[in-house]
Amino acid sequence: MTVNKDPFVRTKNKDGLPDVFKGLVQAGSVDSIHIGAICAYNKTAGYWVEVSAVNDFIYALAIAKEEQKAADSARFIDFYSLHPDDEFEFAIDAARALALGDRFILTVSNAQLLTYSAVATPVARNVDYGHYPHETDTTIRNRSSAVVSFMPNVSAWGLLINGCGLGQPKYIAVAAALTLYPEMSGLEMFNSAEAIHILPVAGTAPAGCHFTAHVGHASNHGFEVGAGSAMYIEGAKQTDNKNVTMNAIGDSLKVVADPNHDWIGVGSVTSAADATGCIDIEG
Fold first, then answer.
1. Using the 8-state DSSP alphabet, how is residue 158 labeled?
2. Which residues contact 92 (CB under 8 A, 6 or more apart)?
3. Measured between alpha carbons, how far is residue 121 from residues 55, 58, 102, 203, 213 in Å?
4. Distance (Å, whole) CA 279 – CA 164
5. Torsion from C-alpha of 260, 262, 266, 272, nearest 10 degrees
6. pTM of the prediction?
7. Do 62 and 133 belong together in one domain?
8. Of 30, 9, 26, 27, the residue nearest 18 (C-alpha)
């Protein structure tokens, strides 16, 4: 359950102030937000909302610096942008002997809890060593919370303000509809079910924007990348309403936006008619 608790600890910024910006939120009666909640920018609605799933990391993240109460109207509130110099303390899913650099992901349905993962794409890393032993002892004390710095490739600072996170790799298993946006550039998708569609990129993608689809689940159709009217494979424009299809586990295709906002496909693929139950990225 989310509570009002500001997690800001310190900043390495020379002026001692964390990086903060104004973000638009819905009326509190529609979606209330607590101080200290990790939030994601909902591109479809155009508002910042508390995270609700592990895969929210593919969008820009920020931390609410003030509360949006049930009686409040839609407005702009302060958010921590998650600058790499800013450090925050969050409870973790299980107490552990935290080592410097330990990585954490979001926690389903809990916007103020981080989950340790040795293998998943991290949203934050442990930066604290105050619990390390002194002198000759080598036993690191357990901690139930971690002081972390958030990764630029998932933060509002990195994706929306500074832009340094654009194109950085992020990995996700896809089993439901997903709309791609330019600030999700670098996303690598593995299908974890047969009936999947990745919707077209919304808006005009800037040159260099790129996505990669990997076949990680056996199916009759595998992944499909929709040709649309501006998809080029090996220099040739694809036929309208035709797709590029990968059927074997291990196949992959990367699509990159060129300066004309067309999509260039890179990879070993086979052209095929459109089919249902597949992943489509359309130009």
1. I
2. 98, 104, 113, 114, 115, 116, 143, 144, 145, 146
3. 10, 10, 12, 26, 16
4. 28
5. -160
6. 0.84
7. no
8. 9
- Report pLDDT for 269: 57
Beta bridge partners of 90: 146
- Residue owning tokens 């999947």: 196
Write down the pLDDT at residue 230: 67
pLDDT tens string 196-224: 566 566 667 788 888 888 877 766 455 56
- Contacts of 277 by beta carbon, 8 Å cutoff, 6+ apart: 194, 195, 196, 219, 220, 221
- Strands of the sheet containing 223-226, edge to edge, are 223-226, 242-246, 270-273
Which tokens sit at 206?
Answer: 């800037």
Residues spanned by the domain of 209: 166-273
Coil, helix or strand at residue 276:
coil
Domain boundary among 153, 188, 204: 153
Which pLDDT score is estimated for 246? 67
What pLDDT score does 244 carry? 66
Report the number of distinct structural domains present in the chain: 3
Q: Among 19-28, 100-109, 203-212, 229-238, which is the least confidently predicted range?
A: 229-238
What are the tens digits of pLDDT across the range 241-252?
556 666 677 777
- Three-class SS state of 10: strand
